[in-house]
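Researcher: Structure for this, please.
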Amino acid sequence: MNKQRAAEIAASPVMANVIYGEKPVYIQRVDEENDTARIYPLDQPEQEQEVPINMLVEQGEEASQISMPIGCPSKS
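Model: Predicted structure, token format:
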């Protein structure tokens, strides 16, 4: 994830699906100067930690980069 997107997520009132390692996390704030984010796992809010922004992944980010051929039939 880039720091601009991380900052947008941290400032947004809408919860985004962000993963660190294999756990869903909440981004509290972003330190753009150090390229880090203050996060905590959704199931363990007491486990705050500072992590590199580039280690955060917005779930669905990879899927949005995959393109389907035009005219590909959908399964109904």
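Researcher: Any notable elements?
Model: The domain at 3-62 is CATH 2.30.30 (SH3 type barrels.). The helical segments are 3-11.
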